[in-house]
Amino acid sequence: RYKDIYYHRRDNECDFITLEKGAITQAIQVCMELNADNQSREFDGLIDALKFYKLTEGYIITLNQEDVFQIENLKINQLLTFPFLFCIFEGSKKKKSNMKRTEYKT
Question: What is the pLDDT, as a whole number, of residue 28?
């Protein structure tokens, strides 16, 4: 079974929540860059979702920043967009054997 993707909104907002086999498995925030202007909003939304769904690890996907944060016994992985998307594609390719790859010739 494939993951279902939802949006989390309670006290704060988290961009993506994944549901797999009836259980919430991931909380993911996405932003171009994490900076002083948005850091609080991004962390607060992710932490709210992690606590609400009793997860211990979450993700912030950015264009060109990588880091790992430990906040309130929660691990927050800041990942680059391309490797994150590549992992999703590779994972779905293994699960779905009839997936067709389209090649473009220039």
Answer: 96
